[in-house]
TrEMBL record:
PANTHER family the UniProt entry points to: SORTILIN RELATED, VPS10 DOMAIN-CONTAINING RECEPTOR SORCS3
Source species taxonomy: Eukaryota, Metazoa, Chordata, Craniata, Vertebrata
Region (Disordered): 80-204
Signal peptide (residue range): 1-31
Identification of the protein by name: Sortilin related VPS10 domain containing receptor 3
Membership in a protein family: Belongs to the VPS10-related sortilin family. SORCS subfamily.
Protein's cellular compartments: Membrane
Protein source organism: Sparus aurata (Gilthead sea bream)
Length: 1243
């Protein structure tokens, strides 16, 4: 925040304070950390607050280190290791001067109207930085009774409810620091000194410095209040190197902070404490956690910290959430995302649920949830989805869990707040939000049709409607403000382009402030024409106007500021530290008084700012200081106290009893103090302030107790009060009523009584136009009237309207929520009751429950049917699921919970809905993809193909489901895939060599891949192989096994033939019985058309001969030998390979004779050898090529033959030459048997 960074020439003063607190209300409890007991900004991403440490101290004694301060909600706190994560505060100070005991305070003086400051140090935007340049890390809003908000941030929503502003005593604080040196002193004095005037009241003060733990750099300070005199302080040393607390000291005061007692002996002298919690419904109960690096325990006290009992924990607590009414009930969130519950104030814990989203768990809301121990939470499923789950804290088994929203939701989107529950549903492209009002069924929220929000935050829900800040598709650093109806469903625009400001921690804060004590009064900064201006409304955004600047400055000089060219502009950023007031302050017990930092001019500026005050609810303004000050309300708002910003050390405070017209200066410290926080009105009956601060970098924490009771001379009586009429520029009717307040007469030094009544009377007014806002679907035009938006059809009647019933026909207006006007134009603007007409169905819409068009096979699919127009009770609904089944309903009301169906097969189904009545019909269709995850893919390709010949490639997918699988083919060297919906593709390889084919199949969320290599040649020969039956017994039919067996077969073939290894390829087919193909490839250097040599033919015949003579065999495993056969010649060997047969030689000779005879027949009849496949490319003839492949359902491989691709003359000449030589010489080399056979054929 800009006002936190100050600059003093030559001193390089700098201060960065982070504070956070969230008080716990009896009615509403939220899991976020925020301040609920005082006006403070709404923080939506507090877990990411970070602040870097500054440089070490320089020689200037007043130079400050960085200060990181954080206050947490009573009962709702976070623990994260490290400074950036622990949500704590650091304060740096220097040596403390030794002061004498018992020093009296004086120096009381009076200042006139609006005193100014002429000191050299000043505040400005030069040190604060541009507040408009923050990222959308979070969104914050200042609010009268503390933050109440929810958000859809990066991943979703956040929800927190504050408590009443009068509960300021319910505050705890965290103060962190780096300290060196130590000092302790106490002082108080009843006598004044200096320039005090006779008769002026004096303050009584005492100071205590924490000693013995000067090295400690963190401190937790808690004052329970409620007439209690106990203050607890936990100081600790956080080691940044190891990321944990190494030392701690617990202090306790029983006299409102005058003295403190060290409590280490009560908790264990060696026990290291890390966090302190106080029960919000019974402040006497305290819970202290030990640092888990040493031990995981909890210390429990029931007597305000006087004594403790220790209990072991089995988990590390990150955050706690106490029940809003039951003092012993608490929820604990662990470091491993588990949620635990305790019903005995932390003595025993029980697991509720695992995988719970941080800060997305809530206790039940009284009056709405039936069970007081009900827990709302956002939990993750095993497959990574997120669900909204409810169950009882001590009975949260799977059987006892409920799922109020049947589908999945976005992460960090669950918000349980007041009467509402919000969720965001994951959709593609657009965000969809649902709301449940008073635990009814979830209904989709209705924003203007083309708002198209990219970010949405729930600002508040406490006034029977929802305030939402929406960043639309065309906005970057601004938000639009929307207000809903009572049910939180229909939203209308209240203000466009509300400015956001960057906070200290990088958070985005919405420049919107709700004035405390006056219903419907808001102040906002709106960006308009590249200028930011401040506007005010008295009727919840129905009408806005600029602020009238003061007529004169502090010196009485006239200010010529004419609307609308010039006006007063206010900074609306509340302090992130609830113990520093920030830039604007109001209090519900002081209605009409607004104190803020601002400037006068054409637009909002962060230079030349001053402090301004309004005593009549923003109608008129006066300047009270020329510098920024922190402002607090004393005595229930009867007095104002001002202290300079913490970047400037001060020893004085200023008090005013006449609404800022006269200020009295009081000295609370003889040495200037850097004020880091102030506790005001911590108790209901005492008048005590406590200042937290430091004198310099090396000083210890200074706790200054100030009793301001002495400044009052007496208690107020009836004569000390006067009436004040709330008005808006003279208009007495605000939010439909005339309100008269009782206020203390300015300048009376009397103490307000605890029974002081703020509102004397409230009289309803006659309704007028400004009491009504535009209804959903309508927009306010230039003439002030509400007209239908271009996208809205006002004649549309709800589908729930049936013949014979009535419905409310909107006039385009709706009464502002909580407006109390009566009569007047109320009847004219109120929706009129009309009889439902009989209409044909129109605007039929069919969707799925989760908005997706895909479903998993066997899952329960829910369809939703929506009808824009038509008699829902008289309209028949039919739904055809597209798989041969259909359902019919007599009316639309039966389909409200959705129509469920389970698909038993995968595919793309045409789902059709039909709405029909006697006047007509309407129909709509959607196409649903029911998918089944792919478990296996196998690529089937030929092992060798001919260049420039088309080849078929097939991918077999298991399980097989048509139309739901997408195929991606990478063929050859192509870098881009070919995408098909069919599992087969044809392709032609233009070049020789080894080519790779890859296929990917995608189904549902699964992608599988298979790759094969293909040899591309000009021509080749092949033989089909079979094996002895014993091989099938060991065939697991997997690719790896086939590759290994193919390699063994090739090795066996090389042992019986001289065919070159690089020209031999064996491919084993899938399936049983086991089969294979032997490919004989040409030499890589052999050109097209080159004549085959006689030696190559002899090698081929030698291989064939070996196959048919049982000469090719291999050992699969010990004792198991497998014989390889030529499939087409014979199914049994001509020669028995059993060594006990003695006629093997004779049979072999007969085989050779048979082979010679076959050659002669080929020559004689010019026939082809049927069992040798010769593949080649012939450009002269159009011959059909058929390449063997294995189909998906075939049990045996399909074998196809092609014609000879070489010329017939080549073979005929070879055979003719052999006959003419009167013989044929065949050399068969068998390496295994080592023999040579010569065959001579004679005439």
């Amino acid at each position: 925040m800009e006002t936190w960074a100050g600059f003093c020439p030559g001193l390089h003063l700098s201060l960065s304070i982070w504070l956070m607190i969230a008080a716990h209300t009896l009615q509403n409890t939220k899991a976020e950390i925020t301040c609920a007991s005082c006006p403070s900004p709404v923080q939506l991403h507090l877990e990411n607050l970070q602040l870097g440490m500054r440089a070490e101290p320089t020689e200037q004694p007043s130079t400050l280190k960085s200060i990181r301060v954080e206050f947490r909600e009573l009962g709702v706190t976070d623990q994260i290791n490290g400074v950036d994560d622990e949500h704590e505060t650091g304060v740096s100070v220097e040596d403390v001067p030794q002061l004498p005991q018992d020093i009296s305070l004086d120096g009381v003086s009076a200042k006139g109207d609006a005193p100014g400051s002429n000191e050299e140090c000043h505040q400005g935007s030069d040190n604060a930085g541009d507040p408009e340049q923050g990222e959308d890390a979070a969104l914050q809003r200042a609010k009268r009774s503390g933050p109440e908000f929810a958000e859809f941030g990066v991943n979703g929503w956040t929800g927190v409810t504050g408590m009443d502003a009068d509960a300021s005593e319910d505050r705890g604080s965290l103060l962190d620091a780096h300290r060196q040196g130590r000092s302790e002193f106490r002082w108080n004095r009843d006598e004044g000194r200096g320039n005090n005037r006779q008769g002026e009241p004096r303050l009584t003060s005492s100071t205590f410095a924490l000693t013995g733990d000067s090295a400690h750099n963190h401190a937790v300070v808690y004052w329970s209040g409620q007439n209690s005199s106990v203050i607890l302080i936990l100081t600790k040393l956080y080691d940044f190197h190891i990321g944990s607390v190494t030392e701690s000291t617990l202090w306790r005061s029983t006299d409102y902070g005058s003295t403190y007692e060290r409590m280490n002996d009560k908790v264990g002298s060696k026990t290291v404490l890390s966090y302190l919690y106080v029960c919000p419904t019974n402040k006497r109960k305290i819970m202290v956690l030990t640092d888990p690096e040493f031990e995981s325990s909890v210390l429990i006290s029931s007597d305000e910290g006087a004594s403790y009992q220790k209990y072991r924990l089995t988990f590390y607590v990150l955050s706690l959430l106490f029940h809003p009414t039951e003092e012993d009930w608490a929820l604990a969130y662990s470091h491993d995302q588990k949620l635990y519950s305790s019903v005995d104030f932390g003595r025993k814990w029980q697991l509720i649920h695992e995988h719970v989203t941080p800060n997305r768990f809530y206790w039940s809301v009284s009056g709405l949830d039936k069970d007081p121990d009900l827990v709302h939470m956002e939990a993750h499923t095993p497959d990574g989805n997120v669900q909204y789950v409810t169950c009882k804290a001590q009975m949260c088994t799977e059987a006892n869990r409920n799922y109020p929203f049947p589908g999945y939701i976005d992460i960090s989107s669950l918000v349980v707040q007041d009467d509402y529950i919000f969720i965001q549903v994951p959709t593609s492209g657009r965000a969809t939000y649902y709301v449940s009002y008073k635990r009814e069924s979830f209904i989709q929220t209705k924003l203007p049709k083309y708002s198209l929000p990219k970010d949405l935050h729930i600002v508040s829900t406490d006034e029977k409607q929802v305030f939402a800040a929406v960043q639309e598709w065309n906005q970057n650093d601004t938000y639009n403000l929307y207000l809903s109806d009572t049910r939180g469903i229909y939203f209308t625009l209240a203000m466009e382009n509300v400015k956001t400001t960057r906070g200290i921690g990088g958070n985005q804060m919405l420049d919107l402030y709700e004035v405390a004590g006056i219903k419907g009064m808001l102040i906002a900064n709106m960006r308009q024409d590249n200028q930011v201006k401040t506007y005010i409304t008295y009727n919840k955004g129905r009408d806005w106007r600029l602020l009238q600047a003061p007529a004169a400055d502090m010196d009485g000089n006239d200010i010529h500021c004419i609307l609308p060219f010039c006006s007063l502009h206010l900074q609306l950023q509340m302090s992130e530290n609830p113990y520093l007031s920030g830039t604007i302050s109001t209090k519900s017990s002081a209605p009409g008084i607004i104190v803020a930092t601002g400037n006068i001019g054409a637009e909002l500026s962060y230079n030349n700012v001053g402090m301004f005050i309004s005593s009549d609810a923003g109608n008129s303004w006066r300047q009270i200081f020329e510098e920024e000050h922190n402002m607090w309300f004393l005595d229930k708002g009867g007095a104002l106290v001002a202290v300079k910003q913490p970047s400037v050390p001060t020893s004085d405070l200023w008090v005013s009893f006449d609404e800022g017209r006269q200020w009295t200066q009081h000295s609370f410290s003889p040495v200037p103090l850097f004020v880091d926080g102030v506790l005001v009105e911590a108790g209901a009956e005492n008048q005590i302030m406590t200042f937290f601060g430091h004198f310099n970098q090396r000083s210890e924490w200074q706790l200054i107790k100030i009793d301001y009771k002495s400044i009052y001379s007496r208690k107020c009586t009836e004569e000390d009060y006067q009436t004040w009429h709330l008005h808006n520029q003279g208009e007495p009717c605000v939010m439909g009523q005339k309100q008269i307040y009782m206020k203390r007469r300015p300048g009376n030094y009397c103490m307000l009584g605890k029974d002081y009544s703020r509102i004397l009377s409230a009289e309803s007014c006659i309704c007028r136009a400004h009491d009504f806002e535009c209804d959903y679907g309508y927009e306010r035009r230039g003439d002030g009237n509400c007209r239908p938006a271009f996208w809205f059809n006002p004649s549309t009647v709800s589908r729930s309207c049936s013949q014979g019933q009535n419905y409310l026909n909107s006039t385009g207006y709706r009464k502002v929520v909580l407006n109390n006007c009566t009569k007047g134009v109320k009847e004219m603007y109120t929706a009129r009751k009309q009889q439902c007409p009989k209409r044909p169905p129109k605007g039929l819409l069919l969707t799925t429950k989760d908005g997706k068009l895909t479903a998993n096979l066997g899952s329960n699919m829910t369809f939703l049917v929506h009808l824009d127009e038509g008699d829902s009770l008289q309209t028949n609904i039919q739904l055809d699921f597209g798989d041969g089944t259909a359902v019919s309903y007599s009316n639309l009301s039966w389909t409200e919970e959705g129509i469920k169906h389970i698909y038993k097969s995968a595919g793309i189904f045409r789902v059709t809905a039909l709405a029909e009545n006697t006047l007509g019909y309407d129909t709509t269709t959607l196409f649903l993809h029911v998918t089944c995850p792919v478990e296996h893919v196998q690529l089937l390709t030929p092992f060798v193909v001919i260049r420039n010949k088309e080849v078929n490639i097939t991918a077999v997918v298991l399980p097989s489901h048509s139309r739901t699988v997408t195929y991606f083919w990478w063929l050859g060297n192509n870098t881009e895939p070919v995408i098909t919906l069919d599992g087969s593709i044809s392709y032609t390889f233009p070049t020789e060599g080894m080519h790779t084919i890859t296929v990917q199949v995608a189904a549902a969320n699964t992608i599988l891949q298979d790759t094969k290599a293909i040899a591309v040649k000009e021509f080749f020969k092949s033989l089909l192989l079979s094996f002895s039956p014993n091989l099938d017994e060991f065939n697991p039919d997997i690719p790896e096994w086939r590759q290994d067996v193919g390699r063994v077969i090739k090795k066996a073939l090389l042992q019986v033939s001289d065919f070159p290894e690089e020209q031999l390829l064996v491919a084993v087919f899938p399936g049983v019985p086991t089969a294979a193909e032997l490919f004989l490839l040409p030499h890589k250097n052999q050109s097209e058309g080159k004549k085959k040599s006689e030696e190559e033919l002899v090698q081929v015949w030698a291989t064939i001969f070996a196959l048919n003579q049982n000469l090719v065999e291999f050992e699969l495993k010990p004792g198991v030998r497998v014989i390889v056969y030529n499939t087409q010649l014979t199914l049994a060997p001509l020669v028995d390979s059993n060594p006990r047969h003695s006629s093997s030689a004779m049979l072999m000779l007969l085989s050779v004779v048979f082979l010679g005879l076959a050659v002669f027949l080929i020559y004689k009849f010019k026939r082809k050898i049927p069992w040798i496949n010769i593949y080649a490319e012939v450009n002269q003839e159009k011959e059909q090529e058929m390449i063997g492949s294995v189909g998906q359902g075939d049990s045996t491989p399909k074998i196809t033959l092609s014609e000879f691709s070489t010329s017939k003359e080549l073979m005929e000449k070879e055979l003719d030459a052999r006959v003419k030589r009167n013989g044929l010489a065949t050399l068969i080399t068998a390496q295994k048997h080592n023999f040579i056979i010569w065959i001579n054929m004679l005439h």
